[in-house]
Design brief:
The protein is 42% helix and 16% strand. The chain is of the alpha/beta class. It has three domains: 221 residues, DHBP synthase; 99 residues, Threonylcarbamoyl-AMP synthase, C-terminal domain (Rossmann fold, 3-Layer(aba) Sandwich); 203 residues, P-loop containing nucleotide triphosphate hydrolases (Rossmann fold, 3-Layer(aba) Sandwich). The strands form three sheets. Strands 1, 2, 3, 4, 5, 6, 7, 8, 9, 10, 11 and 12 form a twelve-stranded mixed beta sheet that branches. A five-stranded parallel beta sheet has the order 15-14-16-13-17. A five-stranded parallel beta sheet has the order 19-20-18-21-22, sandwiched between helices. A hairpin with a 6-residue loop joins strand 10 and strand 11. Helix 15 crosses helix 16. It binds threonylcarbamoyladenylate and magnesium ion (MG). Magnesium ion (MG) binds next to loops.
Length: 557
């Protein structure tokens, strides 16, 4: 099949030609064909809504799941009573104010007239009157309502130019009408009027604030701002599908523009893709950049968001970072499309990063304290674990160790712990030398891992201060406990007799040492580890709050 292309841009003064093209497109539709049509939001893929066989071909051309209903596109509110029942006065009020325009209303469906394939068997139907002279003329000429979902292949970003439509649909449809690039750029706002209060199912080209000004508070469906849990059903079936997604994984970064730009700068590798506001394009010279428009120009961001996402499908970037506008006005729709493209993988650059360093002797309760950090949603970075990781994976560190202690590694590449241990403990300065090497490699790795954190993180290190890791932290915490408590806890934990427990403690630095070196002390006098974990959580909550406040204060100053 060859797709016929009708160019209806800049057609001033050529009325006969325009009328012919509109007639031709309407004829295809009346006869059960498919036509790509321009709207003010995104391009639609239209068929005669009253012809189930024609509508079925829409699902085939798009590869769209059958349980995802279509919008009924009509030329004005006067057609509402044909297809809807129990129409509330509010629907007419909204139509008078916002139609033609980017508002889709969900109303009770007249199931005797509207085919089930449109509604996917629901007893409601979505109706919309697009604000595009060409498409309105086609509908009037055809004299039929159109079923018209967005013209993209299912799962791909919506089409905002006729080239996008051809990219996805050429050869699968009878015709496409070029009405120029879409003015709005994101799909219509979907408002469900069959529930009280009315509910926003999809943010779109009509800002929610405009609706609320007219009709008061509206609910926002959960699927707008967050990924749904397994098995959870959104009110708009289409909101559940992975959507708008380029091939490469996307991370959305929210927060004040200068913060989100900085966050992306820290994270993005050379060669990654970046979608950013115009002001920050120069910050990403080593990345593949698509600009969204100025940070305060949400109308332009809406126009460009799909094009930006689409553009990364033709270049092989390993991952994409996107700066995200705030949720006011059209920002809600732009943010929603970006977040859906990211599978709701979102980083908040406004979140203040707080890094605590925890240290302390055996049996004092460091492990419970770290669990408390995790209870608070924080991340624990264990320096020992990083060391073992590097022992396997960092050839430079292995070389450095091998140079100082030849033969530390066995033929199969694994560390000969026993041999290294013997060498190191034979002389005191040798342990120091080994530590020097370890710190030299562990610290930069730790620093890199900390950069990736955007909330609360704790560094777990017995040599927190000596290694210099403490300097990467906002606050160092000594976890201490009275001697007798530690003895009893070690005996219970490791099933060893009292004298061994005492021996182990005395082989380590005393509490006074940690107390003297750290910024604050978390003293453990609790009856049980569980109790201490609770107390630690309260302690850290206060501490983190205080640090976050100081940081916010200093970044504003
Ligand atoms: O701006 C737009 O609305 C564009 C242009 C082409 O008009 N159309 C569009 O259609 O975005 P589509 O099919 O891509 O998105 C329609 C959304 C889907 O998420 C679908 O699940 C939802 O509307 N929908 C349709 N009928 C519904 C109903 N009865 N109840 C709830 N949601 C419905
Ligand atoms: Mg769509």
């Amino acid at each position: 099949m060859q797709t016929i292309y009708y160019d209806l841009r800049n057609t001033k003064g050529q009325q006969k030609e325009v009328a012919d093209k509109i007639y031709a497109a309407a004829k295809i539709l009346r006869e059960g064909g498919l036509v790509g049509i321009p709207t003010e939001t995104v391009y639609g893929l239209a068929a005669n809504a009253l012809d189930p066989a024609a509508v079925k071909r829409i699902f085939e051309a798009k590869g769209r799941p059958q349980d995802n209903p279509l919008i009924l596109t009509i030329p004005g509110p006067q057609w509402l009573p044909r297809y809807c029942v129990d129409i509330p006065p509010l629907a007419y009020m909204l139509a008078r104010k916002f139609w033609p325009g980017p508002l889709t209303m969900i109303l009770k469906c007249n199931r005797e007239v509207v085919p089930d394939i449109i509604t996917a068997g629901l007893d409601t139907v979505a109706v919309r009157c697009p604000d595009h002279p060409v498409t309105l003329a086609i509908i009037r000429e055809a004299g039929i309502p159109l079923a018209a979902p967005s013209a993209n292949s299912s799962g791909r970003p919506s089409c905002t130019t006729v080239q996008d439509v051809l990219e996805d649909m050429d050869g699968k449809i009878e015709g496409v009408v070029d009405g120029g690039p879409c003015q709005v750029g994101v799909e219509s706002t979907i408002l469900d009027l069959t529930c009280t209060p009315p509910r926003l199912l999809r943010p779109g080209g009509l800002p929610m604030e405009d609706l609320e000004r007219l009709m008061g508070k509206i609910d926002v469906d959960k699927a707008v701002n967050a990924a749904l849990a397994e098995g959870e059903q959104p009110k708009a079936p289409g909101m559940k599908y992975r959507h708008y997604a380029p091939k490469a994984p996307v991370t959305v970064v929210t927060g004040a523009p200068e913060k989100s730009a900085g966050e992306i700068q820290r994270r993005a590798q050379p060669g990654d893709g970046v979608i950013c506001f115009d002001e920050y394009a120069d910050c990403f010279r080593e990345q593949v950049v698509k600009t969204l428009g100025a940070s305060d120009d949400k109308a332009t961001q809406a126009q460009r968001v799909f094009d930006a996402l689409r553009s990364f499908d033709s270049c092989d970037v390993p991952q994409i970072y996107a700066q995200c506008p705030d949720s006011r006005g059209l920002g809600l729709a732009v943010a929603n499309r970006l977040k859906k493209a990211a599978g709701f993988h979102v980083v908040n650059a406004d979140r203040v990063r707080v890094i605590l360093g925890l240290t302390g002797g055996t049996g004092a309760g460091k492990t419970s304290a770290l669990q408390a950090i995790e209870d608070m949603g924080g991340t624990v970075l264990d320096c020992d674990a990083i060391y073992y990781d590097l022992l396997q994976n960092s050839q430079p560190m292995r070389n450095a160790i091998n140079e100082l202690f030849p033969g530390s590694f066995q033929a199969d590449g694994t560390l000969n712990r026993k041999k290294l241990g013997q060498e190191v403990f034979a002389q005191k300065d040798r342990l120091e030398k080994l530590n020097e090497i370890v710190y030299r490699f562990v610290l930069p790795e730790l620093q890199q891992r900390l950069e990736k954190e955007d909330g609360l993180a704790a560094v777990d290190a017995i040599n927190l201060i000596e290694s210099g890791a403490g300097q990467l932290c906002d606050c160092t915490v000594a976890v201490t406990a009275p001697m007798e408590l530690r003895v009893r806890r070690i005996m219970a934990r490791d099933h060893i007799p009292e004298e061994y427990a005492r021996l182990r403690i005395s082989a380590q630095k005393p509490d006074e040492y940690y107390r003297g070196k750290c910024d604050v002390e978390l003293a453990n006098a609790a009856d049980s580890p569980e109790q201490f974990r609770k107390e630690a959580r309260e302690f850290f909550t206060r501490l983190v709050e205080k640090i976050a406040e100081e940081k916010r204060g200093s970044s504003q100053g």
